[in-house]
Amino acid sequence: MSARIIDGKAFAASLRERVAAIVPAFEAAAGRKPGLTVVIVGEDPASQVYVRSKGKATEAAGMVSTTHRLPETTTQDALIALVRDLNADPAVDGILVQLPLPKHIDEQAVIATIDPDKDVDGFHVVNAGRLAVGQEGFVPCTPLGCIMLLEDRLGDLSGLNAVVVGRSNIVGKPMAQLLLAKSCTVTIAHSRTKDLQDVCGRADILVAAVGRPAMIKGDWIKPGATVIDVGINRIDNGEGGTKLAGDVDFAEAIEVAGAITPVPGGVGPMTIAVLLRNTLVSAYRRAGVPYEKGAI
Ligand SMILES: Nc1nc(=O)c2c([nH]1)NC[C@@H]1CN(c3ccc(C(=O)N[C@@H](CCC(=O)O)C(=O)O)cc3)C=[N+]21
Fold first, then answer.
1. Among the options 93, 119, 121, 249, which is catalytic?
2. ipTM for the complex?
3. Catalytic residue check, 89
């Protein structure tokens, strides 16, 4: 049996279109466009690529995109001063500080400076806390995108066994919180988990977010399970170049799973589409303009 491939790229394109279709209504009501500001420190090539595609997608959705490119040598104090300026700028609805930051900068200190109500990444402890207790806030883009794909595929998730492999603050933990909020029975597994294969084998929903290429094998997967592969690993393509690979052994998994996200073309594109969605939501909240929650 061959799994259905979950087309995250197409779903993300339709979400971006939905957002773009609402932007003019916001502009008419608020008298300005939604604005997203991205801050990148240093020259990491992968980060440069992501930041460029975020900027393009933001403009394509009719929003104002601003990018601050700072040198690798930027001090923590200077970065924090910039974030404070952005907090105070009424035209800025969303602030995204691209991670990872250079080693001499304390990421948590920078994230803690972002106004939680402009934190469209959902990384501030206030937003993590809001998610944990079920209050309205901002939810990290990657896990929220995963939930959208899961609900599109499965409808109601309640009662399903969900296993999240990975416990990072940006994917694993918020993913588990969201699945719990959808009434799944949630297990968070990680590199120290005993009998990881058995734990994965009980999952109706398996989310892999560990950052190890092809770690999850076909015989770890419950037949018919829905597999969400968050891994974005750059590996050797065997021809002197590189390619992207997920955390799941795709060739094996496709024979067992009911549905699976590919890498690339799965979760990755959803991350940027949800970022635009969060920015539009932020703009509505900050402008005090009512909006239809189901529509975005
Ligand atoms: N503050 C912050 N917020 C982030 O959301 C954030 C970050 N820092 N740092 C880096 C990670 C990574 N990330 C991705 C976004 C899009 C794709 C994406 O679109 N991937 C495409 C392929 C892209 C390619 O070909 O390289 C895909 O999977 O199909 C992947 C990864 C956001 N991140």
1. 121
2. 0.97
3. no
